[in-house]
């Protein structure tokens, strides 16, 4: 039996709703064997980020080599990366090991406003990571930073997607969680074509880690051999159910429900 192996390169969220924890839960729920390279430890719960402790560069390199030499993933995702130096290291290792299907979630700020990426690291994402990436999944504020423009309409989102694609990534998905429209619409741009994935928008405070979970679901499906189109559709269903059947834990921005999809479909 061939086992689908998925890797996440991201920060740890002690509260379990975002970061490495959300990614590994999602991989497991979708039937991919999950592996991790931890870039930083955050002391975090539903009320916010209370501390950030970056892992030193050698520690990140060693984790990447441990995986590269023994457990090559069929797909990987990146999340919180922190600094330009870390981004360059990761991009080099991805190229060195020729890892396929790279999903970049360009995490910049946590829902409560804490910065998870240094300002000068944005350029490193554009220069080093996007050229080796297959899919990038910015939310609207992240797309504004990457494309260096403000986004107030679907037309703006389309222009931003074209700009981001010009950095060398195959598929750009600008997510609609931060939009104020009645439905949650994610815009997908591939090879000059636009597609919209529309889902119900739920009124809830429990959306901590939605972006991590969505990109992890895409990664798990790619690791299992799905096409990008199919992987994104499953990811949208996965996150929609995880938000719809939220868990109501913690006193702030609560996590999503990572086992809701399994209950519905598996
Ligand atoms: N209230 C909601 N109801 C339904 N779907 C939502 C809602 N909020 C976000 N989504 C969906 O969740 C996915 C993630 O989008 P979002 O824009 O929230 O990511 P994000 O801001 O990167 O998340 P985070 O930074 O918390 O990890 C998208 O598919 C989006 O459409
Ligand atoms: C560790 C980590 N990664 C990503 C996010 C964004 O949701 C977060 N809040 N924490």
TrEMBL record:
One term under GO cellular component: cytosol
Reactions catalysed according to its record: 4-amino-5-hydroxymethyl-2-methylpyrimidine + ATP = 4-amino-2-methyl-5-(phosphooxymethyl)pyrimidine + ADP + H(+); 4-amino-2-methyl-5-(phosphooxymethyl)pyrimidine + ATP = 4-amino-2-methyl-5-(diphosphooxymethyl)pyrimidine + ADP
CDD domains, per database record: HMPP_kinase
Domain named Pyridoxamine kinase/Phosphomethylpyrimidine kinase: residues: 13-257
Enzyme class: transferase
UniProt KW keywords: ATP-binding, Kinase, Nucleotide-binding, Thiamine biosynthesis, Transferase
Pfam families reported in the protein's UniProt record: Phos_pyr_kin
Superkingdom of origin: Bacteria
EC number(s) recorded for this UniProt protein: 2.7.1.49, 2.7.4.7
InterPro entries hit by this protein: HMP/HMP-P_kinase_dom, PM/HMP-P_kinase-1, Ribokinase-like
Gene3D superfamilies recorded: 3.40.1190.20
Keyword Kinase on entry: yes
An example molecular function term from Gene Ontology annotations: phosphomethylpyrimidine kinase activity
Signal peptide as annotated in the record: none
A single GO BP: thiamine biosynthetic process
Pathway named in the protein's UniProt entry: Cofactor biosynthesis; thiamine diphosphate biosynthesis; 4-amino-2-methyl-5-diphosphomethylpyrimidine from 5-amino-1-(5-phospho-D-ribosyl)imidazole: step 2/3; Cofactor biosynthesis; thiamine diphosphate biosynthesis; 4-amino-2-methyl-5-diphosphomethylpyrimidine from 5-amino-1-(5-phospho-D-ribosyl)imidazole: step 3/3
Assigned protein family: Belongs to the ThiD family.
Database matches in NCBIfam families: HMP-P_kinase
Protein name: Hydroxymethylpyrimidine/phosphomethylpyrimidine kinase
């Amino acid at each position: 039996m061939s086992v689908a192996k998925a890797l996440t390169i991201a920060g740890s969220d002690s509260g379990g709703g975002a970061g490495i924890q959300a990614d590994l839960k999602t991989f497991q729920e979708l039937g991919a064997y999950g592996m991790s390279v931890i870039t930083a430890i955050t002391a975090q719960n539903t009320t916010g980020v209370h501390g950030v402790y970056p892992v030193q560069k050698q520690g990140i390199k060693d984790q990447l080599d441990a995986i590269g030499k023994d457990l090559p993933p069929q797909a990987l995702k990146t999340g919180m990366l922190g600094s330009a130096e870390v981004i360059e290291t990761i991009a080099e290792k991805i190229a060195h090991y020729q890892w396929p299907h790279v999903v970049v979630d360009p995490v910049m700020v946590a829902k409560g406003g804490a910065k998870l990426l240094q300002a000068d690291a944005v350029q490193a994402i554009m220069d080093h990571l996007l050229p080796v990436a297959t899919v990038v999944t910015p939310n609207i504020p992240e797309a504004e930073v990457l494309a260096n423009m403000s986004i107030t309409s679907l037309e703006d989102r389309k222009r931003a997607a074209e700009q981001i694609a010009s950095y060398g990534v195959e598929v750009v998905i600008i997510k609609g969680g931060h939009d104020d429209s009645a439905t949650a619409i994610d815009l997908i741009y591939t090879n000059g074509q636009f597609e919209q994935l529309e889902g119900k928008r739920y009124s809830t405070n429990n959306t901590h880690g939605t972006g991590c979970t969505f990109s992890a679901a895409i990664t798990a499906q790619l690791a299992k051999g799905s096409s990008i189109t199919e992987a994104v559709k499953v990811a949208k269903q996965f996150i929609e159910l995880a938000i719809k059947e939220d868990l109501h834990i913690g006193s702030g921005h609560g996590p999503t429900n990572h086992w809701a999809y399994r209950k519905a479909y598996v």
